[in-house]
Design a protein that fits this description.
Helix content: 25-40%
Strand content: 25-35%
Number of strands: 9
Largest sheet: 7 strands, mixed
């Protein structure tokens, strides 16, 4: 809680931190791509992304972001391509629109990886410049290895025995409600 309070207070005060300086640098490294700062989430991490593409097709909305997560709980960082799908559907009884979110996480096998690789490499160098003690860890190990019998920050104790959570949920970010579909 202290780490989160310090991070959020610095953001509100507009203080220059390693995270804010990195964000400014990422804006330059990302070129024409829109940069999304998700660091205000109530988790001890800096989470930033570069929006590659957004597509609306009927009841399907897809956002493709290259995400960079720098936790404040360990000296590692990761990056991955996050596809967030929202499927809108009509319910017959109430005729209300319901949204069904689907998250997919990948990197080398993603169709945009070739286009984004130079941007990813530039941003990874910037992360190591502003967080020199942090080293890259592949997202596969973080998402595919779980911890059972414990609940990460931002989850409820009711979920303790239902399923294991990924290491990513414990150390990197509590964003994903469930474990996303993970590919290399």
């Amino acid at each position: 809680m202290e780490i989160i309070e310090k991070k959020i207070s610095a953001m509100i005060a507009g203080e220059q931190t390693a995270g804010s300086t990195l964000l400014d640098s990422i804006r330059v490294s990302a070129g024409d791509y829109e940069v999304v700062d998700l660091s205000s989430r109530q988790f001890p991490c800096y989470s930033m992304g570069s929006l590659y593409e957004e597509d609306n097709s009927g009841d399907l909305n897809r956002r493709t972001l290259v995400m960079f997560t720098i936790p404040l709980l360990c000296n590692c960082y990761t990056y991955y391509i996050h596809d967030f799908y929202r499927v809108l559907s009509q319910t017959a009884i109430a005729q209300c629109r319901k949204v069904y979110p689907i998250d997919s996480v990948s990197l080398e096998n993603h169709v945009v990886f070739g286009n984004m690789k130079p941007v990813i490499e530039r941003i990874a160098l910037e992360i190591e410049k502003f967080f020199p003690e942090h080293r890259y860890v592949n997202h596969i190990q973080l998402f595919n290895n779980g911890v059972a019998g414990a609940v990460p920050y931002s989850k409820t104790v009711d979920d303790i025995h239902t399923h294991p959570y990924s290491i990513y949920h414990f150390l990197f970010d509590g964003f994903f409600a469930e474990n996303p579909f993970v590919m290399p």
